[in-house]
Amino acid sequence: MLKSLFHWKVLVNLLLAAVVFTGLVWLTFRWLEIHTNHGKEVPVPNVMNKSVHDAIKILDDSGLDYEVDSFKYDPKYRPFQVLQIYPSAGSRVKDGRTIIMKVNPRTYAQVSVPDILDRYKGLAFRQLEQVGLKVGDTIFEPSIQRDAVLRMLLNGSTLKPGSLLPRFTTIDLVIGSGPKRNISVPNLVGLTVQEAKAIIAQNLFEIGLIEFEDQGSDESDIVYFQDPAPYDVRDQGMQIDIWASKKTPAQMGGKISQLNSIYRIKIDTTVPAYIYPEEPVYRPETPRITQPKAEIPKNEVSKETLPKDLPKQETPKAPAETKPKAAVTPTTTPKATTPKVTTPKPSEKPKAKKVIVE
């Protein structure tokens, strides 16, 4: 076995295999040196703050490839100005190396307008801010959708959701201010159904029931009856029902009278003359209260007050007349004076009162 391994033919084959392997390795590294320009390096030129066109020309002259990428828009710099490069300026790279340049775009990146129609204005403002759009004027318009976004405007034209706009673009919003109260209902009788729908929408009412006489759906039929009646007062947003026919309203008199009996019911709102049975009881009391209040302070004086006042004034005269009688008989005067003084004077004093009053 060992003799066969050391045979000269085997050794020759092994030697040839080693030579071939070594030659292949040498050729591979040599090819890599040539292909990668081993030992040949080129400094990266400084193209910062130059326009992208000038930077491309400089890199081409240096034998370097380039790749242009947009950066975030910064209004402080010029459009298409090189703001960043990789590898940095001054670095030594192989010939043909790709240099990545970050360039300031012409304007802000475009964003998609979110769908904020029929949504509350507070939520709509937040959604626009999240995508980078600004809210300009808020225009309020009568609508039953209070505080809801009705339309989006850009320079006066209607803006649809999904449109692409530059970042930080300012848009205007039309917001509902709520329905108006006590609005006169338009007269739709004699118009076509199509015209009636347009007028209902213009006056911010809702289209309710539409009944065709022939059970069809031709919008050229003429409206001969409506509910609520023309010129009735309603709030915006209320429904208006219409009845239409191919005939004129004058030819639909029977149907109109039938609908009037259903939708135009008259209610007697007159008030009867006598409602409260207690009214005659309270009415005579008012003159009785006012008459004595007006006459008492003017001229009349009651007879009961006069005798009470006069005895108070003449009481000091009675003891003056009784004093000399008491000096003669001191023992009998206290008993005799009390009945004599009180009895005659009240009988004479009423006569003097009558003369004083006159």
Your description of this structure?
There is one protein chain. The chain is 38% helix and 21% strand. By secondary structure, it is of the alpha+beta class. The strands form six sheets. It has a four-stranded mixed β-sheet with strand order 7-11-8-9, covered by helices on one side. It has a three-stranded mixed β-sheet with strand order 2-5-3, with helices on one face. The longest helix has 29 residues, at 8-36. The radius of gyration is 59 Å and the shape is elongated.
Tell me the distance between the termini.
Answer: 182 Å
Overall, the morphology is elongated
Instruction: Briefly note the structural class of the backbone.
Output: alpha+beta
Strand order of the largest sheet: 7-11-8-9
Strand percentage: 15-25%
- Please summarize the sheet with the most strands: 4 strands, mixed
> What is the radius of gyration computed over CA atoms, rounded to a whole number of angstroms?
59 Å
Helix content: 25-40%
